[in-house]
Specification:
two-stranded antiparallel sheet; elongated; 2 domains; alpha+beta; Alpha-Beta Plaits; about 55% helix
């Protein structure tokens, strides 16, 4: 396959366009203090665009080659990447960031395929939607809190979990020597101050809060 100058310029525009759109999405995540920022998003978009270009032009002699298979492979690969972001110590978090990376991959594929208008429109709509969601009061809804409680008596730990009532979504008990520990997942109102929740847990008889996030 020969590469003429117009084709090289076309590929350059697609790769740079994907990089810029990915960086724009990552900038919004960076401003919000999320783990996946500009570099992660632009790399996902750039890599997706390159995969699409390779799938479309790198195999001109393969008569039975299906270019859509590469795009499907990129989507599957992003699924593994997003799963690593969501799952952390058996707890679920980072769903918005993972979904953002998934859409960023789609933007890169579209840009790599020469669908410039669709890529730009998707990026704009995505950023507007994420920013609009931040306009809602931060005190609305529930917050997931993961805590590790410990106590010398299993009865104290069990009583503490029971006192939390419906706020407990799941918990796991285990013994470490003479100490009973409980991993607890709580759903609390966002209007409740995290420090107030920490004080409430620490005030329970015979209970120590080893970690809360």
């Amino acid at each position: 396959m020969t590469f003429d100058l117009p084709f090289c310029w076309e590929c350059t525009v697609r790769l740079l366009g994907a990089t810029l759109l990915g960086a724009a999405i990552g900038l919004e995540r960076e401003i919000r203090g999320k783990g996946a920022g500009i570099r992660t998003h632009l790399l996902v978009a750039l890599g997706s665009a390159l995969f699409m270009i390779v799938s479309m032009y790198a195999f001109p002699d393969a008569s039975k080659f299906d270019a859509s298979r590469v795009a499907a492979g990129v989507v599957g690969g992003l699924g593994f990447l997003c799963a690593g972001i969501i799952m952390k110590n058996r707890h679920i978090s980072g769903l918005t960031t993972a979904a953002g990376l998934w859409v960023t991959g789609a933007v890169g594929l579209a840009m790599g395929g020469g669908m410039y208008e669709v890529s730009v429109l998707t990026t704009v709509v995505m950023i507007i939607c994420m920013e609009a969601a931040n306009l809602f009061p931060s005190s609305m809804g529930d917050r997931q809190v993961n805590a590790i409680l410990s106590g010398n008596k299993q009865e104290d730990v069990s009583a503490a979990i029971e006192s939390l009532g419906k706020q407990v979504r799941w918990f796991a008990l285990h013994r470490e020597g003479d100490v009973t520990k409980a991993e607890v997942c709580l759903h609390t109102k966002k209007k409740e101050n995290p420090l107030a929740l920490l004080e409430r847990l620490s005030a329970m008889p015979g209970i120590q809060v080893e970690n809360m996030e």
